[in-house]
């Protein structure tokens, strides 16, 4: 695997997701990552810390200047717990759980997050505003309802299939409800 290519694909997919998702300072992006899948192997069987570090560091370099927080989902052996900064857990009222990732429980992405975050902790659940799934790790449970798929030009990172999600507020109301600001219904009076 060419690490520079993986970094480039990661940055491109993330940049396109951010353009569509329109996240703002303080929002959370959840990332699921199978470094095994990036290598073209079966999920969870061939973790690579080098690939995990390259991808997570690239994502942090993009998100940090924007003030967007990162949450990195672990594997099923940690019940898909997430690594976040302690400040994010406190701001969002998230319950911190006691577990540390290892290469075969949590995975290379979580280890890389622990290495690159200032004060990382694990939380059990989160409701992120958007998500990036590298290798079909099933991040949907951690993205706010209503989830909207985002199509980017990057459909794979390495050999791993990628899926991108953003969220939007629920549409509510009946037949008179509107979904754009026009309080006096002037558009229909012309």
User: Radius of gyration in whole Å, from Cα?
Assistant: 18 Å
Oligomeric status: single chain
What level of helicity do the residues show? 25-40%
Distance between the termini: 60 Å
Rounded average pLDDT:
95
Element string (H = helix, E = strand): HEHHEEHEHEEEEE
Total helix count? 5
Q: What class do helices, strands and sheet pairing give? A: alpha+beta
CATH topological fold name: Rossmann fold
CATH architecture: 3-Layer(aba) Sandwich
CATH class: Alpha Beta
Globally, the shape reads globular
Question: What count of structural domains?
Answer: 1
CATH superfamily: Hypothetical protein TT1679
What ranges have pLDDT less than 50 throughout 5 or more consecutive residues? none
Residue fraction in strands: 15-25%
Largest sheet: 9 strands, mixed
Total beta-strand segments:
9
């Amino acid at each position: 695997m060419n690490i520079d290519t993986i970094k480039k694909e990661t940055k491109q997919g993330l940049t396109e997701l951010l353009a569509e998702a329109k996240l703002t300072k303080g929002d959370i992006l959840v990332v699921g990552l199978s470094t095994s899948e990036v290598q073209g192997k079966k999920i969870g069987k061939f973790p690579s810390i080098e690939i995990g570090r390259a991808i997570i560091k690239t994502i942090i370099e993009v998100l940090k200047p924007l003030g967007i927080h990162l949450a990195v989902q672990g594997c099923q052996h940690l019940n898909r717990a997430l690594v976040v900064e302690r400040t994010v857990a406190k701001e969002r009222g998230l319950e911190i759980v006691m577990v540390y990732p290892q290469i075969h429980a949590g995975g290379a992405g979580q280890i890389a997050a622990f290495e690159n975050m200032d004060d990382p902790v694990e939380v059990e659940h989160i409701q992120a505003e958007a998500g990036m799934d590298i290798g079909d790790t099933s991040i949907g449970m951690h993205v706010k309802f209503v989830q909207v798929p985002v199509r980017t030009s990057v459909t794979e990172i390495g050999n791993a299939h990628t899926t991108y999600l953003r969220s939007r507020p629920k549409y509510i109301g009946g037949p008179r409800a509107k979904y754009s600001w026009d309080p006096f219904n002037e558009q229909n009076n012309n």
